[in-house]
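DM from R.C. (forwarded with permission)

"hey, sorry to bug you on a friday — could you get me a structure for this? deadline for the figure draft is monday and I only need the backbone to look sensible"
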Amino acid sequence: MASTADLIRTAVERFQEEVPALGKLKLVFGLELKAKHDIQLYRVEVPGMKITKDLAQDERVLVEIDRPVFNQLAEKGTIRSYRKAVETGHIKASGDSNVLKLIAQVVERQEERAKLRKVH
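My reply, with the result:
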């Protein structure tokens, strides 16, 4: 089984592959992984992918996700599966509303591009 930092790296890299426009976004975000009786906090800085197990004091966004859902998304997640997890409340993001709006817009545009490619 991969370490949590490796899973975080895999999840971020896979997401950036599907939404390349986010690859250059400079962002520090906190990741809160919730298990039954445990909460793990990580600080993730992109680009360059710096991951530390720590409370992020300089985060712009906090992402909360249940550990089992995170494990599944990290290994096999797609934009569609991330969107569904957000819509169903399995992923919650809070923080700078401008950053959250920007990410949502970029993801929506990427989904629209993907739909157009499938049609052609």
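R.C.: lifesaver. The two ends are 40 Å apart (CA to CA).
me: no worries. The helical segments are 4-18, 67-76, 79-87, 97-119.
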